[in-house]
Amino acid sequence: MPELPEVEAARRAIEEHCTGKKIAACSVADDLKVIEGVSRSDLEAALFGKTILAALRKGKNLWLRLDSPPFPTFQFGMAGAVYIKGVAVTKYKRSAVTDTDEWPSKHSKVFIELDDGLEFSFTDKRRFARVRLLEDPESVPPISELGPDALLELMPVGDFVESLSKKKTAIKALLLDQSYISGIGNWIADEVLYQAKIHPLQIASSLSKECCKSLHRCIREVIEYAVEVDADSNRFPKEWLFHFRWGKRPGKVNGMKIEFITAAGRTSAYVPELQNLTGNRSEKVLRKKSTNVMSKKNVDAEESPSEKEETYETSKKNETTEDNKGREKNDRISSKGMAKKHVAVAKSSLRKRSKSSQANL
């Protein structure tokens, strides 16, 4: 399913090719499951004639800032995707629409033609995505309930270490909790835990400071790298677990055996040789807790033929007072502020590419 890097790639593509242009035509699918809280005709009317000023993202949610509200928001779910005609937008693993499909795709939920003739659509074959029309997307669920964005707002390492020390939850379940950190899904969680050498069922509060620091570094490095290459998995480092974790098939990564367990209700790949479960709590108990703890959490399910399909559920108000105090530090920022963060990340990316190009000369 699309996670932060894939959604960020879609956001960047829209911002590069569509901003500053007026919507000349719009067609919305007659799909009450995906198009939520607004009729197709009202959504079409709200978009027609508007100019796209910016494409913004938090976690795995994307929205367009137009020259006047309301604004369309896109929650990608399991198979949501943005396609721009004639533009190569990175496809995530198990992409639902191929280049040979008709245009616009029969799975298109929102199709837009811009005043210069460019066309793009938001598609969803599995129908677990959600498209909404909101006056202020950041002030209402699901975006208002998201934790800090894993790319733009990752908490400082000291705060991260302190936060984990108070969490009695299995670490993978915590990483998948979108109200704690937004944007991390199943493959990223497996990847960062593998690289940090942490078992998915390890209770967060039992981790040493060094393990917590290592995990923080791996989250930052994996997400920044995936975003840097526009989520093109063919360009991910060959030693990443990503290339070997799909389909529950027996295999090895860097010569070490991969095993699969259920953690936080998700099929989880890990390497026992590196990721040891430590402490007095039994794996059986931890597994039971980790599969139940996410039942009311703000989480996206990974697309898998062997797993139950789930929709995105917003976080309930079951956080402790201590958790709420910590989250106050990460109060929501305005669209203007979010746009500045996107610009800063883009500039950083350009600097890295420039240095890399010079080094290769």
TrEMBL record:
Segments of skewed composition (Basic residues): 338-355
Coiled-coil region list: none
Sorted UniProt keywords: DNA damage, DNA repair, DNA-binding, Glycosidase, Hydrolase, Lyase, Multifunctional enzyme
Pfam families: Fapy_DNA_glyco, Fpg-like_C, H2TH
Domain (Formamidopyrimidine-DNA glycosylase catalytic): residue spans on this chain: 2-129
Annotated GO CC locations: nucleus
Reactions catalysed according to its record: 2'-deoxyribonucleotide-(2'-deoxyribose 5'-phosphate)-2'-deoxyribonucleotide-DNA = a 3'-end 2'-deoxyribonucleotide-(2,3-dehydro-2,3-deoxyribose 5'-phosphate)-DNA + a 5'-end 5'-phospho-2'-deoxyribonucleoside-DNA + H(+); Hydrolysis of DNA containing ring-opened 7-methylguanine residues, releasing 2,6-diamino-4-hydroxy-5-(N-methyl)formamidopyrimidine
Region annotation Disordered: where it falls in the sequence: 290-361
SMART domains: Fapy_DNA_glyco, H2TH
GO biological process, one term: base-excision repair
Annotated signal sequence range: none
GO molecular function: class I DNA-(apurinic or apyrimidinic site) endonuclease activity; damaged DNA binding; oxidized purine nucleobase lesion DNA N-glycosylase activity; zinc ion binding
Ranges of compositional bias, category Basic and acidic residues: 297-334
Subunit structure: Monomer.
UniProt cross-references to NCBIfam families, sorted A to Z: fpg
Family, similarity comment: Belongs to the FPG family.
Protein name: Formamidopyrimidine-DNA glycosylase catalytic domain-containing protein
Organism whose genome encodes this protein: Musa balbisiana
Organism ancestry: Eukaryota, Viridiplantae, Streptophyta, Embryophyta, Tracheophyta
